[in-house]
Amino acid sequence: MAKDLFHDAVKAALIKDGWKITSDPLTIRIERIKLEIDLAAEKILVAEKDNKKIAVEIKSFINPFTINDFHTALR
After folding, report:
1. Which of 7, 54, 69, 72 is 20 to 30 A distant from 45 in Cα terms?
2. DSSP structure string for 2-48
3. Residue 12 burial (CB count, 10 A)
4. Are 19 and 42 in contact (CB under 8 A)?
5. Does residue 47 lie in a domain region?
């Protein structure tokens, strides 16, 4: 699967902010359906809180008609 135009920039920003990249991409299977999310990351927060985890899907809207990109991203 091709990476989004801003994939590396988003990944670098997460790392710079202290996130540890744990999957690139993150693959999730639900029965026979396979989903791929661009990045998975985790960051240890302040002592009172548990580990916080996020999954990041990166999409660029670079066409002149961004609404077309938006609809494509939702599929």
Report:
1. 7
2. PPPTTHHHHHHHHHHTTPEEEESSEEEEETTEEEEESEEEEE---TT
3. 10
4. yes
5. yes
Q: Total domain count for the chain?
A: 1
Distance in angstroms (rounded) separating the CA atoms of residues 25 and 43: 17
Q: Which pair of structure tokens corresponds to residue 7?
A: 């994939």
Question: Does a structural domain hold residue 38?
Answer: yes
Domain of residue 59, CATH code? 3.40.1350.10
Give me the pLDDT at residue 25, please: 85
pLDDT tens digit sequence for 2-50: 677 788 898 999 888 888 898 888 888 989 888 888 877 777 655 455 6
Q: Which domain holds residue 60?
A: 7-74
